[in-house]
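User: I'm putting together a teaching handout on how multi-component assemblies are represented. Below are the sequence lines for each component of a complex, exactly as they appear in our records. Could you produce the 3D structure of the whole assembly as structure tokens, so the students can see both representations side by side? Please keep the chain order the same as the input.
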Amino acid sequence: MIEGHVFIATSQDGFIARKDGSLGWLTEVSVAGEDHGYDAFIDTVDGIVMGRGTFDVVTAFDPWPYSKPVIVMSRTLRQADLSDDLKDRVEITDETPQSVMARLARRGWTKAYIDGGRAIQSFLAAGLITEMSLFRMPVLIGEGRPLFGPLEKDLRLDLVEVTSFPSGIVKTRYRPR
Amino acid sequence: MIEGHVFIATSQDGFIARKDGSLGWLTEVSVAGEDHGYDAFIDTVDGIVMGRGTFDVVTAFDPWPYSKPVIVMSRTLRQADLSDDLKDRVEITDETPQSVMARLARRGWTKAYIDGGRAIQSFLAAGLITEMSLFRMPVLIGEGRPLFGPLEKDLRLDLVEVTSFPSGIVKTRYRPR
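Assistant: Of course. Below is the structure of the complete assembly, with chains in the same order as your input.
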């Protein structure tokens, strides 16, 4: 059995990045030293699954921010396109969310970190998300890449936890029904 | 001095109504008897300012839900279009947010309830919102009428309060900087 977990920050108006992918508004709102539990969360996952859009944003980070294996869901990117330093750390796949989760479960994964708007939307639609930790930043940015997207039907969530931080960030933890 | 206050519920994905204006998903999530403070809030305002879209939704309610004066911002609707029972309760205006708030202040109002997505967006952009009480419902509805919209620049918010309810609704109260 493998669980999909989300751990993501959004603006108050629901965006995870500006339209060009930039995240500077996130760090402007953050308060140095405030622990939102990211490292503790990462310690509990076997690896990260993300879409191409998120991969393009994080490849610009130096150093590479992940110590765990990363799976990138893309129909166009190929393993050979990866830079040498990423070839052992990143695996490209064009599988469906169901297929990739089944394969990762066979590999022994019990908890996958699902990251990025498109990946989160498709995994939610497929019923593959067990829990979401959402961090609402105290800022409106007006437009950008939305966390959530169209759904075939309403999706009810059970609230597990609410926490607020001195920075004004509000963390909510939900389990989709 | 007059303050603009927002008191509104949104889905987890940021919608205040479905595309057709329907609100049934709100009542499906609510728990009977849970007090979110609406009556106490209404007691503190001098009246309600809303856009045409919200007015069209609330005119379908029977009985008319407001005991306080209602101002409707519209460039096309006219006072003569109102039904007889609303003529004394509703005032149509095509003023700007600044003009209407200045006029209401001269009339003695100190606190206006700004309601509806378009009105909230234009009053926020004009710097006329003092405080927002946002109720995040534990449901994703996929698409609808968004609470927030494009902005000329980022708008920072100060978090004043967080409260959660047994239904899973999370109330956050913010003051725009």
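A couple of points students might notice: The interface with chain B takes residues 12-14, 25, 29, 124, 134, 136, 138-143, 146-159, 162, 164, 168-170, 172, 174 of chain A (CB under 8 Å). The radius of gyration of chain A is 16 Å.
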